[in-house]
Amino acid sequence: MTSELRPETSSMSEEAAVLCVHQSLRRCLDAIEQHQEEWSGAILECGPLVRSLSNLAEQLQSCQKVTFSKTPLSGFTDLQDRLRYKLQAAVDLTLEKLHDEMCKLQRVRDSVSHQVGLVLHVYEVNGEKLGLEASLERTSHSPSIADMLEWLQDTEKYYRNQYLQRKLLLEVRHNQLSDIKNLVHSWESLNDKFTAKQHLVEDMLLNVSFFREATS
User: Fold this and answer.
1) Please, what sign has the CA dihedral across residues 30, 32, 34, 36?
2) In which domain of life is the source organism classified (predicted)?
3) Is it the case that residue 76 has pLDDT exceeding 60?
4) Which pLDDT belongs to residue 191?
């Protein structure tokens, strides 16, 4: 009698494992969709700040090169110092605002890494019950578990690498005016580089849209 129940019990165990992994995947994908909006908003905010920073650095460089005593403004003895102070304060404030936006990007990166890590943990816990066939099975409304796990790891890598490269780019001192002035070109190059890879996240969310509806 017991042996007759084993196949059914095994089947139910596999179904429970699939359901558990699917629910974990859906929660992660839902979070990534929300994070993608947060990430895009922060990147959008960074653009004008980087351009403003570059312009301020250029103005500050020019201010330091000009000898005011040889210009019609020579009568204003403290004008150059006041202007230099004002421009430097604007540079510091813009760098602070950029730091705030980078903190938003860091929170997204950390959250995505955490969410993906949770999914992988759930998959490992249920791996034996799932089996290879269940992990590779695709349906009309769902990619395979293996596919989705691979996409999530690619997405986590996308956020991680992009955050790191942007963070390193912005690690400039307020007195490194030449580096700050050229920052806008490097930033736009990164934008071009990662815009080409943004389809990874967008395509993944599109490919799992029916799966998320079915498991909601």
Assistant:
1) negative
2) Eukaryota
3) no
4) 87
